[in-house]
Design a protein that fits this description.
The protein is an alpha/beta fold and 475 residues long. The chain has three domains: 87 residues, 3-Layer(aba) Sandwich (Rossmann fold), CATH 3.40.50; 223 residues, Mur-like, catalytic domain (UDP-N-acetylmuramoyl-L-alanine:D-glutamate ligase); 133 residues, Mur ligase, C-terminal domain (Protein-Tyrosine Phosphatase, Chain A). A nine-stranded mixed sheet has the order 7-8-6-9-10-11-12-13-14, with helices on both faces. The protein has a six-stranded mixed sheet with strand order 15-16-20-17-18-19, with helices on both faces. Strands 3-2-1-4-5 form a five-stranded parallel sheet. The radius of gyration is 23 Å and the shape is globular. It starts with 10 loop residues before the first strand and ends in a 10-residue tail after the last helix. The relative contact order is 0.08.
């Protein structure tokens, strides 16, 4: 655990006592801070009390004595309107920050000072988790102590204290960036940008601006690695590369899949090329990375290569580590077989753009989709419909998705995940498809029926395991 001493002997309020909030309470208490806290859930309040916080309803907080409000990233900061606790903090001129800001102040206590350990931040709409896990795998394979956390795994303050070989690898959501104005990583990587969380940010432009802010902070002295295959990310690269050109020691590297770059990293015809020095050198065949299937994973590999290049000079070490990557749970994860049928857990695909990545990989798909809908639905996935044998719809989005599919792809209203798995398995095993895949790639958030995408993916794995023996064989 990293003890936060930025507010030692002062009073700090924590609102939201889930993973990040509890981590903040532990860290602040260990650093000598007086902590008051609240969560609407009584069980969460009990946990906060056990960690040393004084539990008090937020409307009763002594705002005149509070040095900062540590806000859970899931609580609305600006849109559709600020939560009441944020409005009270703003009125009292109390800074509203998150656990990542506490991390930044402890690891880099003075702006511009050398860090206690390097920080690699990874953000974007899709691919963050896979790339974060891959960067950590490369670093650990090559002898570093990669501490991986943020929006994946542990909260940042629960990571280990820095040692001589420590590099912090942080997945950063837009919510977390919004609450961490002082974070200045050594390397920041942006995978891509597509509409997501618009309800929380008000517009796509606002969402993109939050991501760009972290890149600008890094580009003053550090390295940025940016996927340039979508318009928003490409525009940000143009802005950020201008900053980097004017700063000694800073650099901006573009990444593309399908487009040859004069300088940068790119994948063409399934091969990764390093042209960071201006001359393109083939460094690996992506076919050697068995758990990085599809063009989206080729982008993740190229981004990870760029993120670690300043720490590992031997490209062969990097590519060997990429080839040995075991994959990420809930992202195109093989969880079982039934004869020719494969069951793929892609629960991490919480929007249409993420689901498109899996739909592009498999030729004969029995697709389980639905959940809490996001803007845009699945209209953008129409080009993949010829690959889909049948769709099994679950959750709140089912009626809307059905209207999109009607007359184009066979579907049934399964309602719940367990029923969808049973029906999809029945149809896939009985089909004449040469390579049937039962694919959970919901294109939706999970919050209508599950607490998060991990629980949804675990439920899919469990449902596959319960299938009759003649329908599956565990992989």
């Amino acid at each position: 655990m990293i003890a936060s001493r930025a507010f030692a002997s002062k009073t700090v309020a924590v609102f939201g006592l889930a993973r990040t909030g509890l981590g903040a309470v532990r860290s602040l208490v260990a650093g000598g801070t007086n902590v008051i806290a609240w969560d609407d859930d009584s069980a969460a309040r009990d946990l906060g009390c056990q960690e040393g916080a004084k539990i008090m309803p937020w409307r009763e907080w002594p705002w005149e004595n509070i040095a900062a409000l540590i806000l859970s990233p899931g609580v609305p900061l600006t849109h559709p309107k600020p939560h009441g606790v944020v409005e009270h903090a703003n009125a009292a001129k109390v800074p509203v920050i998150g656990d990542v800001e506490l991390f930044a102040r402890e690891i880099r206590p003075d702006p511009g000072a050398p860090g206690k350990a390097p920080v690699i931040a990874i953000t974007g709409t899709n691919g963050k988790s896979t790339t974060t896990a891959l960067v950590g795998h490369i670093l650990n394979t090559c002898g570093f102590d990669a501490q991986i956390g943020g929006n994946i795994g542990k909260s940042v303050l629960e990571l280990a204290l820095p040692g001589p070989k420590t590099i912090y690898v942080l997945e950063m959501s837009s919510f977390q960036i919004d609450l961490a104005p002082g974070l200045k990583p050594d390397v920041t990587q942006l995978s891509n940008l597509s509409p997501d969380h618009i309800d929380r940010h008000g517009s796509m432009d606002n969402y993109a601006a939050i991501k760009a802010r972290l890149l600008r902070q890094t580009a003053k002295d550090g390295q940025v690695v940016i996927g340039v295959d979508d318009d928003y990310a490409s525009s940000i690269f143009t802005q950020i590369s201008a900053i980097a050109r004017n700063k000694s020691g800073a650099a901006a590297h573009p990444v593309s899949v399908g487009k040859v770059l004069g300088r940068g990293l790119f994948v063409v015809d399934g091969a990764l090329y390093d042209a960071l020095g201006g001359r393109a050198i083939k460094v690996m065949d992506m076919a050697d990375a068995a758990h990085l299937l599809g063009a989206h994973n080729w982008q993740n590999a190229a981004l990870a290569f760029g993120a670690v290049k300043s720490f590992i000079s031997d490209a062969r070490q990097i590519t060997a580590a990429i080839a040995s990557f075991p994959g990420l749970a809930h992202r195109m994860e093989d969880v079982g077989h039934a004869g020719k049928t494969v069951f793929i857990n892609d629960s991490k695909a919480t929007n249409a753009d993420a689901a498109a990545k899996a739909l592009a990989v498999y030729p004969d798909i029995f697709w389980i989709a639905g959940g809490k809908p996001k803007d845009g639905g699945i209209d953008s996935l129409a080009s993949f419909f010829p690959r889909i044998r049948k769709v099994y719809l679950i959750g709140e989005a089912a009626p809307h998705f059905a209207r999109t599919l009607d007359g184009k792809v066979p579907y049934e209203m399964s309602g719940t995940l367990d029923k969808a798995v049973e029906a999809a398995a029945r149809d896939a095993v009985a089909s004449a498809a040469p390579a049937p895949v039962v694919l959970l790639s919901p294109a939706c958030a999970s919050y209508d029926q599950f607490k998060d995408f991990e629980q949804r993916g675990d439920a899919f794995r469990a449902a596959v395991a319960k299938l009759p023996r003649d329908r599956k064989a565990a992989s």
